[in-house]
Amino acid sequence: MKYVDELRDGATARRLAAAIAAEADPDRGYRFMEFCGGHTHAVFRYGVPDLLPPNVHLIHGPGCPVCVLPVGRVDAAIELARRPEVILCTYGDLLRVPGSRRSSLLRARAEGADVRMVYSPADSLRIAREHPDREVVFFAIGFETTTPPTAVVVRRAEAEGLANFSVVSNHVLTPPAMAHLLDSPELDGPAAPSLDGFIGPSHVSTIIGSAPYEPFAREHGRPVVIAGFEPLDVMQAIRMLIRQVNAGRAEVENEYTRAVTRVGNRKAQELVSAVFAVRESFEWRGMGSVPGSGLEVRPEYAHLDAERRFGVAVGQPRENRACICPSVLRGAARPTECTLFGTTCTPDHPMGSCMVSSEGACAAHYAYGRTR
Ligand code: SF4
């Protein structure tokens, strides 16, 4: 299959591994973060770390939308779902994410709340049409890739005059989060080994393009190489990063030219800007409050904004202290450093969001038998 088989070819992977080994300077280490959870799964699924020289390290980033949702927002979703007039619609993974005191949307549903799993925002719009006597709330999560479909349903609900539909926006933005990670003392401070560059996200970049990474690559002096999800994409991106580091360059390069351009998808960007505004700051699990990193529904669509409509408040959560998801999400710890990993916490019985989502680092370590 074109663009699949040729990017998974073992012989080419071995040649690329040899080229990486030849170009990596043995007298230094390289630490590259794959921001996106999809890349984390790809590197483990295809054994990419085993093909790299021992001084080239991959650090998992926070690019998993379910994982980065703070527990306080999970609690808010549960509280909203418990209102008798509400049908709360959201994606399947989110149902299993533990809130405070081991609550979850799944548990709330077992206790009588009307929580529906949907595959797309359009499903929740259909449910709203089918239940005009109920308040249907779409609890939206995701990075720039999933924001345009949410914008579409907000506009459609407006056009149809659907009075019983609204959205909680938990949509987040990638470039501010990457910049924030570079400001993190755990990753970039004098006491910690430095991060040498990023493998940039694939799908997010198809929407936003490569240009939004340029300011922080320049300001923080860290290269970014946008890569596709196939193993040879990731290996080629690592090679490009090593070349930049060796040459003392910090530029944005695009390995994924078959899908990503510098400007991205302008139509999707316009749609998102028409419906959403950038929040002053947004709380990320593990990273705290990140300036300019979240989207809220614009005042023009206030009647479709469930946060305003229901006065959704995000309180102080009670987190499971044994779960080190927050450190895993900012690349400061590996999943296997968690004492619950693979014992108390498994994909069937997740204790934290990083084990729930198929894009979570703990789930990836567990699925592919990584013990380090
Ligand atoms: Fe949290 Fe489970 Fe990962 Fe530990 S293994 S950090 S408890 S999700």
TrEMBL record:
Keyword check for Metal-binding: yes
One GO-annotated biological process of the protein: protein maturation
Keyword field: Iron, Metal-binding
The keyword Iron is annotated on this UniProt entry: yes
Signal peptide feature range: none
Gene3D superfamilies: 6.10.20.100, HypD, alpha/beta domain 2
One MF annotation (Gene Ontology) recorded for this entry: iron ion binding
One of the Pfam families matching this protein, by short name: HypD
TM helices/strands, residue ranges: none
Similarity comment: Belongs to the HypD family.
Xref: PANTHER family: HYDROGENASE MATURATION FACTOR HYPD, HYDROGENASE PROTEIN ASSEMBLY PROTEIN HYPD
NCBIfam families according to UniProt: hypD (TIGR00075)
Protein name, as recorded: Hydrogenase maturation factor
Protein species of origin: Thiohalorhabdus denitrificans
